[in-house]
Amino acid sequence: MSVSIKPLEDRVVVRPLEAEQVTASGLVIPDTAKEKPQEAEVISVGPGRFSEDGERIPVDLKVGDLVIFSKYGGTELRYDGQDFLVLSARDILAVIER
Predict the structure, then answer these.
(1) Centroid of chain to Cα 36
(2) What pTM, to 2 d.p., does this model score?
């Protein structure tokens, strides 16, 4: 299913990846004990913000990138039955290269 959420300025829409529900030793982690996910897939990227000179500064991400983001960053959003986060590009800490 294609999602059409277009973020503004330097914001990025991501879909958080689910945290592991079973540990390597086979223990099941209940939802109440799970940490908030910090990895996500980039769904859409804004055009970038403007510098003081009026130049647009593009965001260095593309749709499909896997990223690590700040634990408490972003705004949670439920759209069309799916969970997303809208993050500022500054809240994204790294791109995961696989």
Answers:
(1) 12
(2) 0.79
Rounded CA separation 75/84 (Å) = 8
Q: How far apart are CA 8 and CA 4, in angstroms?
A: 13
CATH, range 11-19+33-96: 2.30.33.40
| pLDDT tens for each residue of 10-27 | 999 999 987 666 566 766
Eight-state DSSP code of residue 91: G
For 89, phi then psi, to 5°, come to -55, -30
Write down the H helix ranges in the chain.
none
Domain boundaries, the chain: 11-19+33-96
Token representation of residue 95: 């791109």
Name the 3-class secondary structure at 30: coil
